[in-house]
Write a structure and sequence with these properties.
Helix content is about 60%, strand content about 10%. By secondary structure, the protein is of the alpha+beta class.
């Protein structure tokens, strides 16, 4: 059984692929595919030539057609050999042809009225070439800088509005090709004159028919089939109804006969030096528009090709190859910008042929058309290329105006409509500027509605990572509402800063407010506008008037001078200007509250004191404790136990301070908590019988009391009441921690 040809397979070598592609049956299938693409492009090419060379240059239609053909031959050859995907087919397309027509129009408008037609044509063509080189260079530079995918960051509504407006201009260009007349309110009476009406009606019907068929039938053969059917119907009408094709040609129903006038030669490029500065200035806006339109469409069409063929493209390579192809086209006698045609790529993919071979055959077909087959264009009725332009324009407007209605938020859809209208009335570049301004305005409005407060809670629910004695924890539970913690987020600017200030003002001005400390945490803040400093200054004054201590934490280094210069933060004798993190700021507030209530100096708490307070046992039971406890004197830097050690004992901190450190493989140790006098450590692993989950390091020397498993078992056997008191104390401590955690979780959920 013959092996099925699969040019898409990634495991095939170039030699294997060419071996399959060059089989006689595959060459025939590739030639058939190329012929279909040729028919599509040959039907549209006259409209591109007509768009660029019209008015005073209408006599150069044949030369314009040759320029379009050369553009396709050069671009398709380079792309076929170097594209990242074999199915890629590039073609001159209506969006860029419309822009290049505007460039030509601006050159004609600035040229002297008495300039001979030959010189005017050379001038226009040279400017077209320069525009193509600039466009190709811009595209190639994007690819070489590996920035081909930057287009992804342009907001979708801006792209949509731009494309919808471009669709209107392309649709309007169809009337320009047919009648040398643009669709405006002033031209409507002329359009409905009988002779004029009969010229454009077939084009509109043709465009609407293709659009309807493409909606109902997804096959890539719909368009070439419709073109063939239209040609057949036209000639049936011409021979059966009219009876004289020559009379139709003389009446302008067919394209001009260019069979003997397509001997296109390059103009003298030294004439570039004669181009007036005014011509460049007049064309600059349109050239910039050409660059933008080409980059946008190249990205969108390449993305569409990815979906059609089911393979990813290397966008940076595609940009480089396309840029070089357009530069080469411009300096070789072409100059009409070309880029990806997903319909042609879909046809290559669907026919299971090798796209690079199709591109070579296609270039050969257009070369033969240029050299000996120009007469074929005189067989094409004018409504066909004009109708194709109208179809492309309608397709753009349908995709970006109609289809997006159901998939976009109304605000984004409004941006598309505004940009589309601005483009239709004032031009592409003006539409793009309007779109950017509208999008920025909507962005500012939407961003101002975003909540700048990420989380807000009090010290009653959220504690620092310093574990304190039972009595101190009870005090902080009672007085924690005096500490207000606000975690900010995003980029703060004048709108969000004002709303934040008004919220805080409302919070601290209530009659039941007990707030003494306010912590603003900037960890999730990416930056803020300098204008917001006024609102922070108002917040500082409000805090001072209310007797509230304002603290800030996690402020990025580049933002600290702004707060300092604005007088928002200031360093005190026992308080830094800013805290490195929220934990240390909260610890400072807790210590201030404890000091205020004379509980800060709990520097020494014995096990006997803890049991007497929380387990309520008598003196005799407390006096026997020393025979079960091992007294350990510590100094800073000592290790109590290491992560992974056996949990053979728990420790009561009588004085000093320790840190709980977690070691993560390949990373530095992470400090989880700090603990001070009156706290028990290692009790969880002790009761569960599991290895230590973290290490304990002494940061301030003091005294620890060690209670081992063996000592506790002896206590349970000989002094059960004392042992029960130990268990009650541990249960109380764990219950207090769990209660605090539950309150924090509930606060965050609410």
């Amino acid at each position: 059984m013959a092996q099925r040809f699969s040019p898409d397979a990634s495991d095939r070598t170039l030699r294997q692929t060419l071996g399959y592609a060059l089989q006689p049956q595959m060459i025939l299938r590739s030639a058939f595919t190329s012929a279909i693409i040729w028919l599509l492009m040959a039907s549209a090419m006259p409209s591109y030539a007509r768009l660029i060379f019209h008015g005073k240059l209408s006599g150069f239609f044949a030369a314009g057609l040759a320029i379009v053909l050369v553009s396709e031959i050069v671009a398709v050859l380079i792309t076929s050999f170097f594209s990242s995907d074999h199915a890629t087919q590039v073609i001159p397309q209506s969006p860029t042809a419309v822009i290049q027509g505007l460039i030509a129009g601006s050159v004609i408008a600035t040229a002297p009225a008495d300039m001979p037609a030959e010189q005017l044509f050379a001038l226009v063509y040279l400017v077209i070439v320069l525009a193509s080189v600039i466009t190709g260079g811009s595209i190639a530079l994007l690819g070489m800088a590996r920035a081909g995918a930057l287009i992804r960051y342009i907001p979708y509504p801006i792209v949509g509005g731009f494309m919808a407006g471009l669709g209107w201009l392309i649709f309007n260009a169809g009337f320009m090709v047919l009648l040398d007349l643009r669709l405006t309110m002033a031209s409507l009476p002329v359009l409905f004159e009988s002779e004029v009406f009969s010229r454009w009606l077939p084009a509109v019907v043709f465009a609407l028919f293709i659009l309807g068929m493409r909606i109902r039938i997804k096959s890539t053969l719909v368009m070439p089939g419709t073109i063939l059917a239209s040609l057949i119907l036209f000639y049936i009408w011409a021979y059966v109804v009219v009876g004289d094709v020559n009379s139709l040609s003389e009446a302008g129903w067919l394209l001009p006969d260019v069979s003997n006038t397509m001997n296109w030669q390059l103009p003298d490029f030294s004439a570039i030096a004669q181009i007036e500065p005014g011509t460049i200035v007049a064309s600059a806006g349109h050239v910039l528009t050409l660059v933008v339109v080409c980059i946008l469409n190249l990205f969108l069409r390449a993305s569409a090709q990815e979906i059609v063929v089911g393979r990813e493209l290397d966008f940076n390579r595609e940009f480089v190859v396309n840029g070089i192809a357009n530069i080469a086209s411009a300096i070789s006698g072409g100059g009409v910008v070309a880029y990806h045609g997903p319909i042609s790529s879909a046809l290559v993919h669907g026919m299971r042929v090798y796209g690079r071979l199709v591109g070579v055959i296609l270039a050969l077909m257009f070369t033969l058309t240029l050299l000996i087959g120009g007469g074929v264009f005189s067989l094409i009725p004018r409504f066909l290329p004009a109708g194709l332009l109208m179809f492309f324009g309608l397709q753009f407007m349908k995709e970006w105006l109609l289809d997006s209605w159901s998939s976009l938020p109304r605000q984004d859809y409004l941006v598309i409509v505004v940009i589309a209208l601005a483009t239709a009335f004032f031009g592409l570049l003006a539409g793009f500027y309007v779109g950017v301004m509208v999008a920025i305005s909507f962005f500012v409005l939407e961003y101002s509605r975003m909540e700048v407060i990420k989380q807000e809670y009090t010290g009653r629910f959220y504690r620092s990572n310093l574990d304190r004695s039972f009595a101190q924890n009870q005090l902080l539970q009672k007085e924690g509402d005096k500490i207000l913690i606000i975690r900010l987020q995003g980029f703060i600017f004048f709108g969000t800063a004002y709303r934040f200030y008004e919220h805080v003002k409302s919070r601290v001005s209530t009659t039941d407010s007990r707030i003494q400390f306010m912590i603003l945490d900037f960890k999730s803040v990416r930056g803020f506008d300098v204008s917001t400093i006024v609102d922070f200054q108002k917040l500082k004054k409000l805090s001072d008037d209310k007797g509230i201590e304002l603290l800030v934490s996690n402020v990025a280094p580049h933002l600290q001078p702004i707060l300092g210069d604005g007088g928002i933060v200031a360093e005190g004798p026992d308080k830094p200007a800013t805290f490195d993190d929220l934990d240390h700021a909260l610890e400072w507030c807790e210590s201030a509250l404890l000091k205020e209530n004379n509980l800060q100096d709990a520097a020494h708490l014995t096990v006997a004191q803890l049991l007497a307070e929380h387990a309520h046992i008598g003196r005799p039971d407390l006096d026997i404790l020393p025979k079960y406890l091992e007294r350990i004197e510590t100094k800073a830097g000592d290790t109590v136990f290491n992560q992974g050690d056996a949990s053979d004992a728990m420790y009561f901190i009588e004085s000093g301070r320790v840190d709980v450190l977690l070691h993560v493989e390949g990373e530095r140790e992470l400090r989880l908590r700090s603990m001070t006098a009156g706290v028990v450590i290692g009790e969880v692993g002790f009761y569960l019988g599991k290895a230590r989950s973290a290490s304990i390091i002494v940061t301030e020397g003091g005294i620890l009391q060690r209670l081992s498993h063996e000592a506790l078992r002896r206590m349970e056997a000989t002094d059960p009441q004392t042992a029960a008191a130990i268990h009650v104390l541990i249960a109380s401590i764990l219950s207090d921690r769990l209660s605090t955690t539950n309150r924090l979780v509930q606060e965050l959920v609410d």
